[in-house]
Amino acid sequence: MHLPEIALEEALQNGQCALCWLAHRQVLRRVDTLLNEHVTDPQWRQALREGHGFCAHHAHIVLSRANVLSLALIAEDLLSSIPIASPSKRSAATCRCQLCEARAHDTLRSAKLLAQLLNDEQWRTRYEASEGLCLPHLRQVLQVSTGGVHAWLVASETHRWNTLRRHLQEVIRKHDYRFQHEPWGEETSSWRRAFQKLFGVFAEEVPDER
Q1: Residue 1 CB burial class (10 angstroms; 0-12, 13-18, ≥19)
Q2: CA dihedral 14, 18, 24, 28 (to 10 degrees)
Q3: What band does 102 get if pLDDT is binned at 50, 70 and 90?
Q4: Are 28 and 61 in contact (CB under 8 A)?
Q5: 203: which DSSP letter?
Q6: Which of 28, 35, 137, 201 is the most exposed place for a label (fewest CB within 10 A)?
Q7: Domain residues for 14?
Q8: Residue 99, domain member (yes or no)
Q9: How many structural domains compose the chain?
Q10: What is the pLDDT of residue 96?
Q11: Greatest CA span in the chain, whole angstroms?
């Protein structure tokens, strides 16, 4: 297998959504590359100023991984170039996050690769053994899938959704005082898995279990 296929196989083995898991790690690698190689690059810093920095999510990642000097250089650049008040709607200081754009590009490429690989029975077996995809990424893969893969993927995820619904119904039932004494089983954490499945909430961003 080539490196993109190896990475996708690893994502299927480890992620609640394979494409969320893969995109998160790609972003971390990009952040580390930027911090190690580009913070003092005038062209990169100019592009960062023109884009008005990062979105809040990616700014949090940068803040958690950069050293003090890198953060100071980035922040001083942005404070010196971003207007506090926009003089007109046309020149509104809207953030064009480099990492969001890179993530969108990487994820589309991964979606196309997965759609292609799912023509192969071995990759369908790998997918069935995984947690599947969140709804946003599922729709993205479906958009670039052939008819056979499209139908198979819809059927596979429909089965997952039905299983998840049964678990959620069991959670709701066990909150009835008449059944609160019953032990918990597979339905444990189903509410977290449901939000991950529906909205693409990455596992590292979810609060502690409750």
Answers
A1: exposed
A2: 60
A3: very high
A4: yes
A5: G
A6: 28
A7: 3-85+94-203
A8: yes
A9: 1
A10: 87
A11: 67
Tokens matching residue 8: 């996708």
Distance CA 38, CA 73 (A): 11
Q: How many helices (H) and strands (E) does the chain have?
A: 10, 0
CA distances from 207 to 61, 128, 159 (A): 17, 27, 27
Handedness of CA 168, 172, 174, 179 (dihedral sign): negative
- DSSP letters spanning 87-126: SSSTT------HHHHHHHHHHHHHHHHHHHHTTSHHHHHH
Residue partners of 154: CB distance under 8 A and separation at least 6:
142
Q: What is the pLDDT of residue 88?
A: 57
The span from the CA of 25 to the CA of 61, in Å, is 11
DSSP string, 51-89: TTS--HHHHHHHHHHS-HHHHHHHHHHHHHHS-SS-SSS
**What backbone phi and psi angles, to 5 degrees, belong to 118?**
-70, 0
Q: Apex CA 140: angle with CA 197 and CA 138, to 5°? A: 30
Instruction: Write the CA distances from 174 to 47, 184, 190, integer angstroms.
Output: 54, 8, 13
Is 208 among the domain residues?
A: no
Asked whether residue 210 is domain-assigned, the answer is no
